Amino acid sequence: MATVELTKENFDRTVSDNPFVLIDFWAGWCRPCLQFAPVYEKAAEDNPDLVFGKVDTEAQQELAAAFGITSIPTLMIVRDQVAVFAQPGALPEAALTDLITQARALDMDEVRAKIAAAGEERG
Predict the structure, then answer these.
(1) pLDDT tens, 20-79?
(2) Which secondary structure element, helix H or strand E, spans residue 39, and what is its range?
(3) What are phi and psi of 14, to 5 degrees?
(4) Active-site residue, from 22, 33, 69, 90
(5) Dihedral sign for Cα atoms in the order 59, 63, 68, 73
(6) Strands 3-5 and 74-79, bridge-based pairing
(7) Within 47-122, where are the H helices?
(8) Is 38 a catalytic site residue?
(9) Which residue from 7, 71, 101, 109 could staple onto 88, CB 3.0 to 4.6 Å apart?
(10) Mean per-residue pLDDT for 96-109?
């Protein structure tokens, strides 16, 4: 299997040990989640250098709550321990591929600088 089941026990370690993690928040009763699953699995197979995690929001309610997940499926991308994308909705294959390409192209130094600047404006 190309995806990793994420739980509150392994989530932090998975995100801190890997520079690029995609996370699918889903539930077994959610029809759009089940329709998105094969698209997500194929992307995982097509991108073996990335970590594709799945969080079952029914089994991992604390984890879903910690990220404010109110709609599923929700896809999150974490690069270098920074959430660079989070959006609910099942993506078609082409959109997911494009999103992965865009996330790969991000300059993480620039992303961190923007986050720091936004924090200073609020501060």
Answers:
(1) 999 999 999 999 999 999 999 999 999 999 999 999 999 999 999 999 999 999 999 999
(2) helix 31-46
(3) -60, -45
(4) 33
(5) negative
(6) unpaired
(7) 61-66, 93-105, 108-122
(8) no
(9) 71
(10) 96
User: Is residue 110 scored above 50 in pLDDT?
Assistant: yes
What is the Cα–Cα distance from 39 to 45, expressed in whole angstroms?
Answer: 10
30 is catalytic: yes
Q: How many CB atoms lie within 10 A of CB 40?
A: 23
Q: Give me the count of residues in the chain.
A: 123
**Sign (positive or negative) of CA dihedral 93, 19, 101, 120:** positive
pLDDT-derived band at 1 (thresholds 50, 70, 90) equals: very low
- Name which of 43, 39, 42, 66 is nearest 55 in CA terms: 66
| Amino acid making up residue 53 | G
